[in-house]
Amino acid sequence: MAKVILIGFMGSGKSTVARRLGELLAHPVVEMDEAIVERSGLPSVAEIFAQRGEAAFRDLESAVAESLAAASDVIVSTGGGVVTRDRNMEHLRANGGKVFLLHAPFDTVAARNAGLETRPLFRDGSRARQLFEARAPLYARWADETLDSASRSVDDLCSGILSRLNFRP
């Protein structure tokens, strides 16, 4: 099986779907934000933003994406901004990576992110909406397949991904 890359805005369901796919396929799951935090030596994404800024976070994100270029048989849950640098997506797609966009309308992701202090870019609702709108064409550009994550269950999303991969249990 190829590398599965999940992209989408914060709160679109990438982490939840990745964990379930990992269980179904018995493949490891790489949470890019967790790998970034580990590389940083800081306790959280919010701390990276606070102490080093977004540019430093994006540089760490690029390093993690590059480290995944040769990976296979892995599920990758990306951060929402991974699409802002072409090289990130080129690295992730390398070695047969298939990119799935989990899409939900802004109101849905806003509700899912409400009150989460772990999402530094979502603290300002109007800024978050601007990011959502700015990233939409980038997600569309890189997606091999798009799935509506607002109205489908996790298992239904996983079934959709597996069928698009022509995976038969």
Helix content: 40-55%
Strand content: 5-15%
Rg, Å, rounded: 15 Å
Secondary structure class reads alpha/beta
Give the CA-based shape.
Answer: globular
The average pLDDT is: 91
- Total discrete domains: 1
Low-pLDDT segments: none
CATH architectural category: 3-Layer(aba) Sandwich
CATH domain topology: Rossmann fold
Order of helices and strands: EHEHHHEHEHHEH
- Write down the CATH class: Alpha Beta
Major sheet: arrangement of strands: 2-3-1-4-5
Number of strands: 5
Distance between the termini: 12 Å
Notes on the protein architecture:
- By secondary structure, this protein is an alpha/beta fold.
- It has a single domain (4-164), classed as Rossmann fold (3-Layer(aba) Sandwich).
- Helix content is 52%, strand content 12%.
- A five-stranded parallel beta sheet has the order 2-3-1-4-5, with helices on both faces.
- Helix 3 (45-52) crosses helix 4 (54-67).
- The termini are close together.
Task: Explain the layout of strands and helices.
Elements: E1 4-7, H1 14-25, E2 29-31, H2 32-40, H3 45-52, H4 54-67, E3 75-77, H5 86-93, E4 98-103, H6 106-113, H7 125-142, E5 145-148, H8 154-164
Parallel strand pairs: 1-3, 1-4, 2-3, 4-5
